[in-house]
Amino acid sequence: MPSGESRGKARQLSPLDHLISAAQTALTTIASTPVGTGRTDPARDLKADVLNDAQKRESAGLMRVNHVGEVCAQALYEGQALTARDGRVRDALIQAAAEEQDHLIWCENRLKDLGGRKSLLNPLWYFGAFGMGALAGWAGDRWSLGFLKETEHQVEAHLESHLDRLPQEDLRSRAVVKQMKEDEHKHAETAKKAGATELPWPVPALMRRVSRVMTGTARWV
Predict the structure, then answer these.
(1) Tens digits of per-residue pLDDT, 141-174?
(2) Crossing angle, helix 87-114 and helix 53-83, to 10 degrees?
(3) What is the mean pLDDT of residues 103-107?
C-alpha cells in the first residue's frame, strides 16, 4: 500500500495507474491493514482498561461500526479521486484518505484489544461506497467536495453519539473516537474552503438513511 506521501503524487499518474492504485487500496482495506501516515495511535500510551464482559461487548460493537465507517471512507475517497477533474481536488481527497487510514488502523487495533472482530460484510460496504464516491466525483468537483463535507459532518455527529454510548471506563476507545471526530471536522472544513457546493436537502437525508441501515447491520454482522 503506498504511503500518504507517495499517494500525494497521484496527479502524475495515468488513468490506468489510478485504476491499479484503486484496486490495490481495495484489497489492502478489505483483506489487510493499510500503512497510514504513521501517526501515533491515541490509545497506545493510555493505561489498560479494566472492563467487564458487557462493557467489552458494547465497546467492540461500536468500534466495529467505526471500523466499517473507515472502510467506507477509504472507498468513497478512492471513488471520488478516480473521477476528480482538478488535481488539487484529487490531492485533497488523497490526503484525507491517508488520514482516514490512520483511523482504520486505530479501530482495528482497538477491536483486537477488545476481543472483537471486523464486519463480515466489509467487501459489500467497500464496493457500495466506492460506487457512491465515483458517482459524486462524476457529478463534478464542487459537488464531490459537497458530498465529502456532508459525509464528514454526519460522521462527526455519529462519533459524538458514540462518545455518549461508550463506557466511561473505556478510555482507550474514547481517545480514538475523540481524535477521529477532530479529524473529520478538519476534513469537512477543508472541503468547504476548497469550494464545496451545498447539497440539496434530499441528498443528506438519503445519506442519513443509508448510514442508519449500515451502522445498524455492522453493529452485529
Answers:
(1) 899 889 889 999 999 999 999 999 999 999 999 9
(2) 160
(3) 94
Q: Quick one: residue 200, left, alpha or beta (phi over 0 = left, psi -120 to 50 = alpha)?
A: beta
Task: Give the model's pLDDT for residue 48.
Answer: 78
- Exposed e or buried b per residue across 56-83, where buried means at least 16 C-beta atoms within 10 angstroms of its C-beta: bebbbbbbbbbbbbbbbbbbbbbbbbbb
> How far are the Cα atoms of 91, 127, 146 from residue 6, in angstroms, in the given order?
11, 24, 26
Which residues touch 13 (CB under 8 Å, ≥6 apart)?
A: 21
Cα dihedral sign for 119, 120, 121, 125?
positive
14: confidence class by pLDDT, cuts 50, 70, 90 = low
Question: What one-character DSSP code corresponds to residue 121?
Answer: T
